[in-house]
Write a structure and sequence with these properties.
By secondary structure, the chain is α+β, with helices and mostly antiparallel strands. It has eight helices and 19 strands. The strands form two sheets. Strands 7-6-2-1-9-10-18-19-8-15 form a ten-stranded antiparallel β-sheet, with helices on both faces. It has a nine-stranded antiparallel β-sheet with strand order 3-5-4-16-17-11-12-14-13. Helix 2 crosses helix 8.
Length: 373
Amino acid sequence: MTSLATRTSIDTVLEQVRQANWSYALFREPNSKVITLMASPQLQHAEPRIVGARTGFAIRPFDEEPGFVLSATFLAEWRDGELIHTQGEIASVSEQTKLPDPAPEKTSNSTYADRVHRACRGLHEGIADKVVMSDTVRLPVPSEDPLTVWKRLEAAYPAAFVSMVSTPEFGLWLGATPELLVGWEASRYVRTMALAGTQAMPKSGDPDDSTWSQKEIEEHAFVVRHIIERFKQIRLREYEETGPRAVAAGPVVHLRTDFVIDAHATERTTLPDDLRARLHPTSAVCGSPTEAALQMIRQIEPHDRQLYAGYWGPLALRNESHLYVNLRCLRWYDDAIDLFVGGGITRSSDPEREAIEIQLKAETLRAVIDGHR
């Protein structure tokens, strides 16, 4: 493929990428009108460094090092349905046949409430202060194709990073996350955020009308402290903190605190990568202290999180890099899809209420998938 007309659709180009059996990442950044597709014949097993990166897409599983980078061998961008930029070419169709990708069998009969009960016992014993327990919800494959479902997510979550990523290593994933792990802008400003505390959008439609419980405020404070502690570990004192404030993420509301650092003022040339390495996994997806919470997750959760609660995002795209925590996502198999959802557990958590909240999160995502929103 040597040239594309401005009216060439995402569907057409994505089908050519699939026919070539290339790995790809299709995404739209928060509050942007530009949709980007990056594709490459292979995925590089390497740490996804920000400083000095070439244009590509970083992928870091939750509990696997060092990560992966999808180089932008081919890149295309659309705005309002019109193709506005392409770079590179898609090679001729590969002779390789796509391998079957059936959903794995469930290996545990424990309920989410059971696992929260177990986590709470560990917290009361002093093993950790907070732990994030995740769950998977299995659903039948939608009647529509993945791109149609991705377009629904993109419309439902304008303020989120909405992505569809396919690789032989991890299969097909769709996600819509509002949480930035690290942003690197104009080769100068580093951004991150604390995002924790979730509830349904108030009936008024105004996030500021939300009333936050002590548990939700406490959960958010854990994440803020986690970030500031990581700053202290690298002796970073020069930063701007704003929040917390209530922000909309589709049909739900989160508490969010933003941090901005002027890297020029710190004279730290590796600051974006220093923070990337230290902030993951965040307290919002793992817990606190990190190592203790991580061990609890490994012992209690019956499933492999895979890409859920890891991070991914574009590198060196228009002189900016943005890595997002992979929340509110799903793994698309040949015969089923698994929704991944999670919730922060503290000593004051009620297991039955946490189970209800996790179902609410799953139903919110399911409604978008089914086209009910």
